[in-house]
Amino acid sequence: MLSIRGRGAAHDPPNRFESLHVEPDPEAFALEEEDERIGPLTRFYRDATRSIIATNKSPDVPFDTSVNPYRGCEHGCIYCYARPTHEYLGFSAGLDFESRILVKTDAPELLRAALQSPRWTPQVLALSGVTDPYQPVERKLRLTRGCLEVLAEFRNPVAIVTKNHLVTRDVDLFTELAAVHAAVVNVSLTTLDDQLHHIMEPRTSVPKRRLDAITTLSKAGVPVRVMMAPIIPGLTDHEIPSLLEAARDAGAIGAGCLPVRLPHGVADLFADWLERHFPERKDKVLNRIRDMRGGQLNDPRFGARMRGEGVFAEQIRTLFDTTRRKLGFEKDGLRLSTAAFRRPEPGGQLGLFG
User: Fold this and answer.
1) Which listed site, 76, 156, 234, 332, has its alpha carbon 20 to 30 Å from 21?
2) Is the peptide bond before 128 cis (omega within 30 degrees of 0)?
């Protein structure tokens, strides 16, 4: 199967909820090079949802509420655990996930209404938690910025996870929130290898730009953590010390890591990707993942899915923890505060004592 320029997946696997599946004509793709073809253009669809804050009860996830302005992600990271969520929309977890993006155009207005409601209990909101809030179309649509403007207006704490340098565009809002201990930015950094980045995370910012983002935000007084997520045994785990050192030197104050997990159709997509790009490493990588996941490519059990088990999972945790302590990273995650939360008066006025 040929690779597709700028895409992580190379095809659309069957949707597990659909009885019919369409196989595209291979000749429908224009060959540009011997080993690469031009894939589908990205299409954007309006998501007319009337609620914006999602709740989460998983004991493995460090937040209870989140806002996702986009469904699907043009970044195209091949390992993305969120790919199967697109199947609930009638799309596939493959090319559809990265080329059929649903856009919540009313996200800022819906968020303002939710925070204004007396039913809202001030708490940390994750932005976004599923797909990247700074994927390429955000540069034009500015929905994430609109949500941040609302959060700054209410001084509601927010935690961001992103792979995109575009996060620095909103440094003014992050600085405003950080002044009241209400913001943290987590920059996801998986590799320093530009060639690996190009095929594994095709439309994300290159590693150097992510490090630049850490520096820009930290110099502005915004707390920044680096997230090594995911760590892929046999492919990226050897980079743990160099990744952490580079992030520390860039200004990150904390670090976290997650081993790769491959739910539902992501397992086949990832195996196909390895066959196309690293055939000599495919068996080694997949076998190490199976060792971490009870003999399977995925283990969905609470308590195990975010940590993994077995000797390779333990080796990764030991190397990560040892390096983190050596480099002086904070041991625990930054605690955000709701003490400054406020509700504007009707008409948008904060009042004399806001």
Assistant:
1) 76
2) yes
User: Ramachandran region of residue 338, left (φ > 0), alpha (ψ -120 to 50) or beta?
Assistant: alpha
Please report which confidence band the pLDDT of residue 348 belongs to, taking 50, 70 and 90 as the band edges: low
Residues across the chain? 354
Q: Residue 320: enclosing H or E segment and its boundaries?
A: helix 311-327
Please work out, in degrees rounded to the nearest 5, the angle formed at the alpha carbon of residue 153 by the alpha carbons of 348 and 178. 165
And the tokens for 198? Answer: 């190009």
Identify whether the C-beta of residue 270 lies closer than 8 Å to the C-beta of residue 78.
yes
Instruction: Phi first, then psi: give them for residue 255, nearest 5 degrees.
Output: -150, 150
Distance CA 29, CA 328 (A): 50
Tell me if the bond preceding 202 is cis, omega within 30° of 0. no
C-beta of residue 162 within 8 angstroms of C-beta of residue 199: no
**Sequence-separated contacts (24+) of 17-23 with Cβ below 8 Å:** 17/87, 17/88, 17/90, 18/87, 18/90
Token pair, residue 158, equals 């927010």
For 271, residues 6+ apart whose C-beta sits below 8 A from its C-beta are: 282, 286, 297
pLDDT in tens, 31-68: 444 455 667 899 999 999 999 999 988 777 878 999 99
Q: Are 14 and 73 in contact (CB under 8 A)?
A: no
Residue 238 tokens, joined: 């050897």
DSSP string for residues in 159-223: EEEES-GGGGGGHHHHHHHHTTT-EEEEEE---S-HHHHHHHSTTSPPHHHHHHHHHHHHHTT--
User: Residues near 317 by Cβ (< 8 Å), separated by ≥ 6?
Assistant: 257, 307
